[in-house]
Amino acid sequence: MKFKIQVGEVEKHLVEFNYNQLAGSLLIKVDNQPIHRSIRLLNEPVAEVYHFVVGQMERSEVRIEKIRKQLFGHRNSVYVGGRLANVFVGV
What we know:
It is a single chain. By secondary structure, the chain is mainly β. It has a single domain (about 1-90), classed as Lipocalin (Beta Barrel). Helix content is about 0%, strand content about 65%. The strands form two sheets. It has a four-stranded antiparallel beta sheet, with no helix packed on it. It starts with a strand and ends with a strand.
């Protein structure tokens, strides 16, 4: 599952999320700079939360909640500043 979301009103940043369930790889980038990378081959947890802050002058707190479905797929909820910004559901 891949998605991009723009964060910030004045100071804009691009947050990219790329997760491959079959390979077990996860990459989160902010403005094309990797901030989180992991590879998990077995024992994927049902829920994971990634929390980080983007911006210098206008700081925005971003939280991505990844919830695994029973067999394949995920539901990703993106919160910016504590408010739900978007939900991405993938198979």
